[in-house]
């Protein structure tokens, strides 16, 4: 018999994270486009980010037929948070839009799946592309980063909002994420974690 799951955070009821999820306001609107392969992932940090922000939306799919309407938010200036050629630092983009809130579009998936989202949705590829500062370290201790500076989706959203809305801080969004990681470490056992996930 399958374990009952929380309908809100999708975690097993005995590991529900809802009590730790804040509800933070932001001038920035966050649109997370999640590849379907991430939906059932045990560490679905995009959901945590969307639940913890009052001005955020999570959409799941590969092709988004209503993307034009999603991007045409009145009063917002849209950008895509994704590394690659022709990116500009997020701080620089924010400085150009001081009187206009940002619509931050965040693809969620493996690098390959995220690139596929861009390929299938040309409107995304046409957006100004922004990047976080170099040197950020992920707290995602149970998953090896594919490259230096790679962050989970919730970490990337928090880092971006801390830049866009400074001096406001959004680190409270990381509380359920930290609890999720601690739960994973506990489930695998400290010895396994030490052996497989700590740097040598």
UniProtKB/TrEMBL annotation:
MF (Gene Ontology): tRNA-uridine aminocarboxypropyltransferase activity
Keyword Transmembrane: no
EC numbers for this chain: 2.5.1.25
GO biological processes: tRNA processing
Domain DTW: 2-189
UniProt entry keywords in alphabetical sequence: S-adenosyl-L-methionine, Transferase, tRNA processing
Pfam families: DTW
Protein origin, superkingdom: Bacteria
Enzyme class per UniProt: transferase
Family under the similarity heading: Belongs to the TDD superfamily. DTWD2 family.
Protein name: tRNA-uridine aminocarboxypropyltransferase
Species lineage: Bacteria, Pseudomonadati, Pseudomonadota, Gammaproteobacteria, Pseudomonadales
